[in-house]
From TrEMBL:
Lineage: Bacteria, Pseudomonadati, Pseudomonadota, Alphaproteobacteria, Hyphomicrobiales
Species per Swiss-Prot/TrEMBL record: Bradyrhizobium aeschynomenes
Domain Malonyl-CoA decarboxylase C-terminal: 168-407
A Pfam family of this chain: MCD_N
Protein name: Malonyl-CoA decarboxylase
Span of domain Malonyl-CoA decarboxylase N-terminal: 82-165
């Protein structure tokens, strides 16, 4: 109710401002990039609250009139024409050099801020401004790869969105069958890990006693989940996704559940890419589950490995013998042949251990983005699961491999520091043993001690 009241109030202010600006006349004609840039200049230069709110709404409305070339021209203008005030910045630099002080440093800081940051703040004041800026950044991301000069604008938008979408503003809500249909539709649409096929499939994921789903929302976007996580309550750590999603499975009574399995995490807003919510989401959901179900003592993921098949095909860490065995992945219905799966397992498990523990990008980062996410959160690589995902997608992207990351609460900070400071992959002995030669080395170490 409060949120709706303030939204209506801002809308009223905006409409009155429009009336003042237009003298009661009709709406402005459609904008092109040049006229929209001029309107932005007027917005960032003006001081009136009502007129500014109305003008911000006009800018956002006018933006919708632009085609792809118009959006590119508009974004380019924001880069070139809405940077720092050079004269003001030069004076602040001279003043600082002449007499360094905290006040001078503050003046220098504000003088160096690009004018487009203030423009974006003022656009955000318009009714519905926040979701429209998120959508605008989606358009910017579509142009960024081919137009790297737009990166300066993207940095400024991300800087502001990171402040507006920080953890303090986010609201955790449980998603269940009583959740409004428009939100449930988005859960179906944006599920990015294991497709939700229909409403019955969705109900099986959120309604039974051993299923949970939580999402983060922002007050400015109350009907749009930003990120959501699906959880299965089980007795033990699972190694495959199919039993968790089976139509005819028997639900686990809550009093027998000891493990919470985070089996899918999906972002819904591409325009918020690069702004991390997942680490906060997992940690807060763990706390919610512990309060609701005190007997839960194990918190793990059952995670996909979306880039593993691509790495298998290109890695130089595979021997010629490995490559000959890996050709079996091209056999139709290979997952149904016990002899083929056994032969592949002997090659793929050691390569998977190398992929997670040793392989790096040219910049020294772990190759797998899911691994970077969970290890950065303080999880431990617990288990590599052969034949974990037999779906067509699982075969195509990960050669059926899935992994468990274990969130042991007392070790999270230590694991995070090890990964963040030293790049160390904290892994169980079971995973380390899969490395070629590592099992023999660990046995020799135990015998010698």
């Amino acid at each position: 109710m409060a949120n709706a009241f303030f939204t209506d109030l801002i809308t009223t202010i905006s409409e009155r401002g429009r009336t003042l600006l237009r003298g009661g006349g009709s709406a402005v004609d459609k904008h092109d990039a040049k006229s929209l840039t001029e309107l932005c200049e007027a917005l960032v230069s003006g001081a009136g609250e009502a007129s500014g709110t109305a003008m911000a709404r006009d800018v956002l409305d006018g933006y919708h009139d632009l085609d792809a070339e118009g959006r590119k021209a508009f974004f380019t203008a924001l880069v070139h024409d809405f940077g720092p005030d050079n004269a003001r910045l030069a004076k602040a630099i001279d003043d600082w050099r002449a007499a360094p002080s905290d006040e001078g440093a503050s003046a220098l800081h504000f003088a160096s801020e690009p004018r487009r940051q203030e423009l974006i703040r003022r656009l955000n004041r318009a009714p519905g401004g926040t979701p429209e800026l998120v959508a605008m950044r989606t358009d910017l991301l579509d142009l960024l790869k081919a137009n790297p000069e737009l990166a300066a604008l993207d940095r400024d938008i991300v800087h502001l969105l990171s402040s507006w979408f920080n953890r303090g503003f986010l609201v955790l809500r449980k998603i269940d069958w009583s959740t409004p249909a428009n939100i449930l539709e988005q859960i179906i649409r944006y599920e990015a890990v294991h497709e939700i096929h229909d409403w019955d499939d969705l109900r099986r994921r959120i309604d039974p006693v051993d299923r949970r789903c939580y999402a983060f929302f922002h007050p400015a976007m109350p009907d749009a989940p930003l990120i959501f996580v699906e959880i299965a309550l089980t007795e033990t750590i699972p190694g495959a996704i199919a039993p968790l999603l089976a139509v005819d499975r028997a639900p686990v009574p809550a009093d027998r559940a000891r493990t919470a399995v985070f089996y899918s995490i999906s972002n819904t807003q591409r325009g918020l890419g690069g702004i991390s919510f997942g680490n906060f989401l997992i940690k807060q959901v763990v706390e919610e589950l512990r309060r609701e179900l005190p007997k839960l003592d194990t918190f793990v993921t059952l995670s996909p490995v979306p880039g593993f098949m691509g790495w298998l095909k290109s890695t130089e860490d595979a021997t010629e013998e490995d490559r000959n065995v890996l050709k079996l992945l091209n056999e139709p219905r290979w997952v149904e042949d016990v002899s083929i799966t056994a032969e592949l397992r002997s090659v793929i498990e050691p390569l998977a251990a190398h992929y997670f523990l040793k392989a790096r990008t040219s910049k020294g980062k772990l190759i797998d983005p899911v691994a970077r996410f969970h290890l950065g959160n303080g999880a431990r690589l617990e288990r590599i699961n052969w034949l974990g995902d037999l779906s067509a997608k699982g075969q195509r992207e990960s050669a059926t491999v899935m992994v468990n990351y274990l969130y042991r609460l007392e070790d999270i900070e230590k694991n995070h520091e090890a990964y963040a400071n030293d790049g160390e992959v904290v892994a169980s002995s079971a995973v380390k043993k899969l490395l070629r030669g590592e099992g023999r080395r660990l046995l020799d170490m135990r015998l010698s001690s």
